[in-house]
């Protein structure tokens, strides 16, 4: 029995099998062009866990018949790595053979340790491929960054993860059709992986070890990963029921209920950016000008989630939920815009009044464009009695008078 971890057994064997990185590996894209031109140089792969950084590094070594040495900056010292770089230098000099040194979590090396790579990278003695989940602009030396290419990998989508699970179930390197997942278990693993292929494959492997049945059900997977499913099909009813519960809890100014429904969604595997988008929408629809800062807070939460991901980003969403629940409420903007939109759709052919038309040419001015327009800044408090609505909507108001 092969005891190699499933994630290693089903690792892509060529670049065409790598999923989710079409912006780098698709036809005409940067890494694809390098492969076609036979060019190999040092690079930094920046992306979330399980997005394919290690796989891409290994495939480069395979493609160019280079020696491959892998280290983790979390557990390896720079002294050991310098020893291998020296050996790589000898191989290059004696046999003209390239060596790829792959450093996982390269951001964990301090600036002085990173400097150790510079002479070897600059001379081409080694091909350095560093992997990082942190923004290289902040975590890596500018001198090192100037000598490498930086490529950003995307998190794997829900569909990408499902394809990877399916590949593991059906290919000879995986289970070769001997094991199956129920539809609920399949979707659950894809959700809880949060775009991390390694998490999905580990959950699948542990589930097969926990059950002797060919068909693995949702209950088995839940027991293995110690998480409960919310029957959370993204297109299903419960998905919309729970987001509705969150929305109505915030509208009802109940921060405790808001936190509960937020936690329900996150722990069930909901995309945190989907939740963030809904909170931005709530800030506009249900708070609006009653507290304009609500939109700023919601956007900041969205940016935080996008920047740091889960689980750290969960607290940004929680803070936003509490703020929105406690904020004063107003749907004035929402209702006013709906009325304005309704009028606009009924009067799309209504001409713009001549006095507020743009008049960039002499002919337009001769035709009366802009004639009679009163420039507000020429009047006290920049206020002037002037009509801005089309003829058939004169006097129409959508907002309550502001006293």
From TrEMBL:
> What Gene3D superfamilies does this protein's entry cite?
1.10.8.60, 1.20.272.10, DNA polymerase III clamp loader subunits, C-terminal domain, P-loop containing nucleotide triphosphate hydrolases
Coiled coil residues, start to end: none
Recorded source organism is candidate division TA06 bacterium DG_78
Write down what this protein is called.
AAA family ATPase
Family affiliation? Belongs to the AAA ATPase family. RarA/MGS1/WRNIP1 subfamily.
Q: Which UniProt keywords apply?
A: ATP-binding, DNA replication, Nucleotide-binding
Example GO biological process: DNA synthesis involved in DNA repair
SUPFAM superfamilies associated with the record? P-loop containing nucleoside triphosphate hydrolases, post-AAA+ oligomerization domain-like
Q: What does this protein do?
A: DNA-dependent ATPase that plays important roles in cellular responses to stalled DNA replication processes.
Query: In its keyword annotation, does this UniProt entry include Acyltransferase?
Result: no
This entry's Gene Ontology molecular function terms read: ATP binding; ATP hydrolysis activity; DNA binding; enzyme activator activity; single-stranded DNA helicase activity
Q: Which SMART domains match?
A: AAA
| Keyword Plastid attached | no
Enumerate the spans annotated as AAA+ ATPase domain. 39-156
Residue ranges spanning the membrane: these are: none
């Amino acid at each position: 029995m092969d005891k190699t971890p499933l994630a290693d057994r089903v690792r892509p064997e060529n670049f065409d099998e790598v999923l989710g990185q079409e912006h780098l590996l698709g036809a005409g894209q940067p890494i694809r062009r390098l492969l076609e031109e036979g060019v190999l140089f040092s690079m930094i792969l920046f992306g979330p866990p399980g997005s394919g950084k290690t796989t891409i590094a290994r495939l480069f070594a395979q493609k160019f018949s280079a020696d491959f040495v892998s280290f983790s900056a979390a557990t390896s010292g720079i002294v050991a790595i310098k020893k291998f770089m020296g050996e790589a230098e000898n191989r290059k000099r004696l046999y003209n053979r390239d060596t790829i040194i792959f450093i996982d979590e390269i951001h964990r090396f301090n600036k002085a340790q990173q400097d150790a790579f510079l002479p070897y990278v600059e001379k081409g003695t080694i091909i350095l491929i560093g992997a990082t989940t942190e923004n290289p602009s902040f975590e890596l030396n500018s001198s090192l960054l100037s000598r490498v290419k930086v490529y950003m990998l995307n998190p794997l989508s829900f569909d990408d993860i499902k394809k990877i699970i399916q590949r593991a179930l059906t290919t000879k390197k995986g289970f070769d059709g001997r094991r199956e997942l129920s539809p609920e278990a399949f979707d659950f693993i894809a959700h809880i992986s949060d775009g991390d292929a390694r998490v999905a494959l580990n959950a699948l492997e542990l589930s097969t070890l926990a059950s002797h049945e060919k068909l693995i059900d949702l209950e088995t997977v839940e027991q293995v990963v110690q998480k409960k499913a919310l029957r959370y099909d993204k297109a299903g009813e419960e998905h919309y029921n729970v987001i509705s519960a969150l929305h109505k809890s915030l509208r009802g100014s109940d921060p405790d209920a808001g936190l509960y429904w937020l936690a329900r969604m996150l722990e069930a595997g909901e995309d945190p950016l989907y939740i963030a988008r809904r909170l931005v929408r709530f800030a506009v629809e249900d708070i609006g000008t009653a507290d304009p800062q609500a939109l700023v807070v919601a956007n900041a939460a969205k940016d935080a989630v996008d920047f740091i991901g889960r689980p750290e980003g969960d607290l940004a969403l929680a803070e936003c939920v509490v703020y929105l629940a406690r904020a004063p409420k107003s749907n004035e903007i929402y209702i006013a815009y709906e009325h304005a939109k309704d009028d606009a759709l009924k009067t799309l052919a209504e001409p713009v009044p001549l006095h507020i038309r743009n008049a960039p040419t002499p002919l337009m001015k001769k035709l009366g464009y802009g004639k009679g327009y009163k420039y507000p800044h020429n009047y006290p408090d920049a206020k002037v009695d002037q009509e801005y609505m089309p003829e058939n909507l004169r006097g129409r108001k959508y907002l309550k008078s502001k006293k």
